[in-house]
Design brief:
- The protein is α/β, with parallel strands linked by helices.
- The protein folds into two domains: 219 residues, Enolpyruvate transferase domain (UDP-n-acetylglucosamine1-carboxyvinyl-transferase, Chain), CATH 3.65.10.10; 208 residues, UDP-n-acetylglucosamine1-carboxyvinyl-transferase, Chain.
- It has 15 helices and 24 strands.
- The strands form six sheets. The chain has a four-stranded mixed sheet, with helices on both faces. It has a four-stranded mixed sheet with strand order 2-15-17-16. Strands 4-5-3-14 form a four-stranded mixed sheet, covered by helices on one side.
- Strand 12 and strand 13 form a beta hairpin.
- Helix 4 packs parallel to helix 6.
- It is globular.
- The two termini are 25 Å apart.
- Bound molecules: ligand EPZ.
- Ligand EPZ binds next to helix 1, helix 5, helix 6 and helix 12.
Length: 433
């Protein structure tokens, strides 16, 4: 089992290149199986969740040809099964997009209830409601398997009760080969919704309105092959922006869409960072102690829930009192106990965290409870005095490609070390001391 060992105290300085968006990739890979022709996907992030989904796709019989680390060719012509094995699905949440994709293409799909980060109850009632509105019978079978089956899928008017990224993508997938037009109201507007819609349109789908809260999907007879490049990852970019700010560094975050980062940039400016936007990069400079602010997580274009742990880690060291309100997932403050072990002063009550900024954090042995919380604890380790040893780094590898290498290139002292490799640990400590 691997751990990150971090020696804190160095400002991050330099340039970092952001990879493709993980959460767009998951929807796009599932959508790729809907054609019976080759679909070439570029700018694919090489992260665990994506690789697990590729295994699941090849497990149902599609041809998956990894051209290089960031490019894959998928052909759904050879799919033999509409049953996605529990082995795959239990590891990641994004596999549930195969339910929408296979239901859309074959009018039948069976997928085990999704896993993913434990950040709340994560119901799928809106996905079910959407599939049923299209004419499918959806059942939860023994062993937590969801099955969806229809004689034919027919467009309908669907009003989502909650703004859900997953349900919006799943309904777009299922409806693009349905008869007539589907209207999704109260749809999510995240950049990856737009990316999945653009991708499906490149395969011949007819989806309009993605990026607004009303999406119209006019069903087409079939989807064809395509070549498509995934957008940059908003959350990876935001994480590096906050890492630059927390360490009082100067980082140019390259290969981003600055518009997608507006909510993050605005908070950084508010607490005293300089943020400079270019065409496809942003530079974050922090050269003084940062101030406090209040943050409420909201669906896009609000402040992303996937950046909530990272901004909490940043504000733990800022001057004054900040309040974080988590309005998307009810169980996303588990990492606060780990930050407290490093000396942070944070009180959680329900969905709110009140942070009293402290002057410094101290390195500690801590554990990542989920993906984004893991990234936040790395940020804390980068600014803490002394050594931080972070367990459960596999969570971080679900969504960040070469995280420690990218941080090292910016000047951080961080290394991934096997938990039992005492010699490596001593070697690292000697190198950085
Ligand atoms: C996606 O999860 C992302 N995952 C999450 O990223 C992200 O945190 C989340 O969207 C919000 O942006 C993937 O894209 C694979 P939702 P998803 O459906 O689709 C409620 C990361 O770190 N809801 O938008 O599961 C739900 O409980 C991960 O990369 C229902 O009530 O999120 C939540 O309160 C973690 N019924 C809210 O909606 C439903 O049927 C938003 O969830 C569906 C959702």
């Amino acid at each position: 089992m691997d751990q990150y060992v971090i020696k804190g105290g160095k400002p991050l300085v330099g340039e970092v290149v952001i990879g493709g968006a993980k959460n767009a990739a998951l929807g796009i890979l599932a959508g790729a199986v809907m054609a019976d022709e080759p679909v070439l996907i570029e700018n694919l992030p090489d992260v665990c969740d994506v690789n697990v989904l590729l295994d699941a796709i090849s497990g149902i019989g599609a041809i998956v040809d990894r051209i290089d680390r960031h490019t894959v060719k998928i052909n759904g012509r050879t799919i033999k099964s509409v049953y996605v094995d529990y082995e795959y699905i239990k590891k990641i949440r994004g596999s549930y997009y195969l339910l929408g994709a296979l239901l859309g293409k074959y009018k039948e799909a069976k997928v085990a209830l999704p896993g993913g980060c434990n950040i709340g109850s994560r119901p799928i009632d809106q996905h079910k409601k959407g599939f049923e509105a299209l004419g499918a019978k959806v059942k939860i079978e023994q062993g937590g398997i969801i099955s969806a089956k229809a004689d034919c899928l027919k467009g309908n008017h669907i009003y989502l009760d909650v703004v859900s990224v997953g349900a919006t993508i799943n309904i777009m997938l299922a409806s693009c080969l349905a008869e007539e037009t589907t209207i999704i109201e109260n749809a999510a507007k995240e950049p990856h919704i737009v990316d999945v819609a653009n991708f499906l349109n490149s395969m011949g789908a007819n989806i309009k309105g993605a990026g607004t809260d009303v999406i119209r999907v006019k069903g087409v007879g079939k989807l064809h092959g395509s070549t498509y490049s995934i957008i940059p990852d908003q959350i990876e970019a935001g994480t590096f922006m906050l890492a630059a700010a927390a360490t009082k560094g100067d980082v140019l975050v390259k290969n981003v869409i600055p518009k997608h980062l507006d909510a993050i940039s605005a908070k950084l400016v508010e607490i005293g960072c300089e943020v400079e936007e270019f065409d496809d990069s942003v530079r974050v400079v922090a050269n003084k102690r940062l101030g406090h602010t209040n943050v409420k997580t909201l669906p896009y274009p609000g402040f992303p829930t996937d950046m909530q742990p990272q901004i909490t880690a940043l504000l733990a060291l800022s001057d004054g009192t900040s309040v974080i309100t988590e309005s998307i997932f009810e169980n996303r403050f588990k990492y606060v106990a780990e930050l407290a072990r490093m000396g942070a002063d944070i009180k959680v009550e329900g969905n709110m965290a009140v942070i009293n900024g402290v002057d410094n954090l101290m390195g500690a042995a801590i554990s990542a409870p989920d993906l984004r919380a893991g990234a936040a604890l790395v940020l804390a380790g980068l600014v803490a005095e002394g050594y931080t040893i972070l367990d459960q780094v596999t969570y971080i590898e679900r969504g960040y490609e070469l995280f420690e290498e990218k941080l090292t290139a910016l000047g951080a002292s961080i290394k991934k070390i096997d938990i039992n490799d005492e010699r490596e640990l001593q070697k690292f400590k000697l190198q950085v001391s």
